Amino acid sequence: MITAVALFIGSLVLLVYSSDKFIGSSEKIGLNLGISPFIIGVTVVAFGTSLPELATSIVSVYEGSSEIVVGNVIGSNITNVLLVVGLSVVFAGTLHIKRNLMEVDMSLLLGSAFLLWFALKDLNFSFIESLIFSGGLVVFLVSSIKSGQKEEVTVLQRNTLSTYLFLIFGAIGIYFGARYTVVAITDISEFLNINPAVVSLSALALGTSLPEIVVSIAACKKGMPGMAIGNVIGSNIFNTYAVMAIPSFFGEIIIPSSVLSFSLPFMIVISALFGLICYSQKISIWEGLMLLGFYIFFLAELFRMGFV
């Protein structure tokens, strides 16, 4: 058990660190090719914050533990709204939100959450649904690009050998980090005699959400709350569409029946609550503490489900 926990922590650290280096190198190479920084932001960076979830989900399908996928998606989305936003408010105080974020991005977030419910209610994620979710991802990216800068500025940046080395070793680190994270989750689940989906909803979701936590808190401290909230919304939409759709092309995804009784409905309620909180265009510290309280309840309920 101690070995499995140590493997989980070590592989998760490797996964998050490698993802950060891989995305940083990709961004520099994109700038060198003359790609707009904004386009890189809504594609590479948005992809990057969800890369740990995507990598572990793809590997879990290959390793025969595909029930981890849906737990990873739902758990990460819940963690982003409750823990990431809650901590951002606690560290930075009241967050003020621009209306354009509410008019477009929030509706896309709620739409993706409800679509996930309808797709999973029969405990099956079909090939057609994979294509629909892939289409949803394209719509989200196109919408993000159209709502951004009208004119693209060509920015050239000189790349060094280290840039390409970080890209290569980052990709290798992502592979091994994701693989052994899944192995560790399987071992821990077997030792404790609990469903791997429960571990993915809690420990894995928390670990793979570390990039969102770091980015959002840093943005709030720099006086850019819109970036923090946008990061959470974009990451959740990307999780729902990409992390569900892409792994399904590598094999069948098993949907645990337990997700319909608690975690999925809880995610939808939390997403709706997030929309209501943001409707006033500000999130107070009391609302942030409420979100953290909901997260503690979520973990406590998972603990009860897993061990009782």
H and E string? HHHHEHHHHHHHHEH
Number of domains: 1
What is the strand tally? 2
> What's the assembly state of these chains?
single chain
Structural class: mainly alpha
Q: Major beta sheet, specifics?
A: 2 strands, antiparallel
CATH architecture: Up-down Bundle
Instruction: Estimate the global geometry from the Cα principal axes.
Output: globular
Low-confidence stretches: none
Can you identify the CATH superfamily? Answer: NCX, central ion-binding region
CATH class: Mainly Alpha
**What fraction of the residues are assigned to beta strands by DSSP?**
under 5%
Average pLDDT: 80
Tally the helices. 13
User: How far apart are the first and last residues' alpha carbons, in Å?
Assistant: 19 Å
CATH fold call: A middle domain of Talin 1
Give your account of this protein's structure.
With 308 residues, the chain is mainly alpha-helical. The protein is built from 13 helices and 2 strands, in the order H-H-H-H-E-H-H-H-H-H-H-H-H-E-H. It has one domain: NCX, central ion-binding region (A middle domain of Talin 1). The longest helix has 32 residues, at 161-192.
Topology:
Layout: H1 2-32, H2 37-49, H3 51-62, H4 67-92, E1 95-96, H5 99-120, H6 127-146, H7 161-192, H8 196-208, H9 210-221, H10 225-248, H11 258-261, H12 263-279, E2 282-283, H13 285-307
Antiparallel strand pairs: 1-2
Key terms:
single chain, 308 residues, mainly alpha, A middle domain of Talin 1, two-stranded antiparallel sheet, globular
Quick synopsis:
The chain is an all-alpha fold and 308 residues long.
